[in-house]
Please model this.
Amino acid sequence: MIELIPETYVAPLDLVAIFGRVAPLRVDLGCGDGSFLRELAQRYPGQNFLGMERLVGRVAKACHKAAAPENVRVVNVESSYAVRYLLPEASVETFYLLFPDPWPKRRHRRRRIVRADFLDAIHRALTDDGFFRIATDQLDYFEQICGIARNHSGFAIVDVNASPARTDLPLTKFERRFRELGAPIYRLALRKISPVR
Ligand SMILES: C[S@@+](CC[C@H](N)C(=O)[O-])C[C@H]1O[C@@H](n2cnc3c(N)ncnc32)[C@H](O)[C@@H]1O
Model:
């Protein structure tokens, strides 16, 4: 896959210049090895895909794999910052947050990425009726996310389930691992329902 190195980190990305076309955009937050993104991009050649990953080594690994589809870019960046400041308003059709770092210790929970202000930023970057799809193996994180989402007037919860077998999406590296362990997987889909909060 192609690594995206933005010209500047203080202005919104020029998505048409980056992808060379206008097409619906899906963004994978914390894309890890990029395998999910690569498979999805192969399924939907008419759409654009952007992975965000804060670990340099994982970005390098994702970008060194062969047979990369043309419609994917990966950027080494912190997702909360990038969603807020690098993505143009109403530019993303779907966000994925798949197996975010769980920070299970109570004293570390404030490091979790999903908070009310993060949902505000997701809401701003989504197109009308856009989706935010989340999966985690951590029940208490899942319940925390559901609570934050229920209190956000800009989203409707359109799907909640806890069945590892049920998904129309490619499996991520972590999902494969959790399935092998027989761990439960909790999923949530939010749809943007109002243009402003
Ligand atoms: C548990 S892994 C899951 C990776 C991948 N989504 C999967 O399911 O296989 C979480 C990934 O998110 C990345 N990550 C965590 N917090 C991040 C942040 N704030 N911004 C960007 N990447 C982040 C980590 O470096 C790691 O690669």
Q: What stands out?
A: Residues 2-192 form a domain with the Rossmann fold fold (CATH 3.40.50.150). The beta strands are 2-4, 25-29, 48-53, 72-76, 92-98, 126-136, 155-161, 186-192. The chain has one domain: 2-192. Helices lie at 15-19, 35-43, 56-64, 79-85, 116-125, 139-150, 173-181.
